[in-house]
Structures
1.
Amino acid sequence: MPRKMLIDGEVKQASQVEEEANFDFDLFVIGAGSGGVRAARFSANYGAKVGICELPFDPISSEVNGGVGGTCVLRGCVPKKILVYGANFGGEIEDARNYGWEINEKVDFNWKKLLQKKTDEIVRLNAIYKRLLSNSGVKLYEGEGKVTGPNEVELTQLDGTKLKYSAKHILIATGSKAQYPDIPGKVSFQFFLIECLGIGSCWGILSPCQSNN
């Protein structure tokens, strides 16, 4: 008669338990944006063996670049707030003249310096997110991941080498990318995304860590 075991409140066959124990990971997450990172960290904190993959970081995203942190942190919300914050000073300086501040010298604006400030901040945040994963015991892989089977993930590394890992659970947290309608201003808008926000060729990539993203 097959042996049975009680695991996490569920009765399982001993052979099933042994098979599950052979997985490389309890959870493998494809995409290290805010959602993927949080899922990986919390699972690891509860004792799960967790792996996560993300494309390598670059200040400007593309089909081959991404970064731990995802769109909100690296491409959208945070960069936008920095640019808006920097832009507000222009009006405040002019208002100050009307409230007793004597600003005699011409005030110049250095656009490249503001962009560098934005880049410095997302570099800092990318490092913080990596450290959060490391401190939680999550194994981070840089490369492009895709699901190749019910419990199998294939990871293509930067040099083209392909690795395969098995996981009891797989979480796809890659987000998506927008489709641009063919309307006037499309090219100008894409140029703004690249030059101003550093978003690259697409908008809305949370964690471009899949082959078709």
2.
Amino acid sequence: MKAAKTIPSVLKYFLIVSVYLLLFVSLQNRRSKTLLATTGVDSSSDDLRIRPGYTNYDAYIRRQLNKTLNPKLRKIWTTRDWDRKINVFSKFFDELKRENLLSNSSKSLSIGARVGQEVEALKRVGVADAIGIDLVPFPPLVVKGDFHNQPFRNDTFDFEFSNVFDHALYPTKFVAEIERTLKPGGVCILHVALSRRGDKYSANDLYSIKPLSKLFRRSELVRVRKVDGFGLDTEVVFRKKKMIQRS
């Protein structure tokens, strides 16, 4: 009688363990899918790799601030590099104007603008309504903002520029915020590095433009060209698709 009672107990134990194992595996699979969706990494592609080492988002922000708040770098950005970078950015923006990708009336945003050289360059080529965002503000050119969660309403800008895609810990969020705040028909310009890796503050490494084309789900790729932009070698242009009017 004791043996008869023991067998069902053992089976019950194994049944409970099996259920817990199935739940554990299911939970791990969900977490993996969530991570892939959040980072924007295609599991079948190595063309966009998120760098390891960030235990949480606060740790990522602290590391980015280590660069942005570095007094030596900020002095360089506002003195020696100031005019040099403005001149280079002005040439980029002038060419975009000639291609009708940018105009004097374009409401423009520079993403990850630090001390605002790109914003100043936009203003100098005639784009008066221009502002930048960065974790650390630099008035009046740059306001405080996280590019993973832009502090602007939907469909705000005609033009958005960024050369800090490599600093995005969550590329999907980075691009989604651009497409959210960009007006239908608006233009986004990204300067990225494909032939070399970013600095120690970069959060991802990009090896081709294929991941960008997948991330910009609501936009069409306009063109790609080589540039010499302070260590960034490729300019990628997207235009947000216009909404189809239903009758």
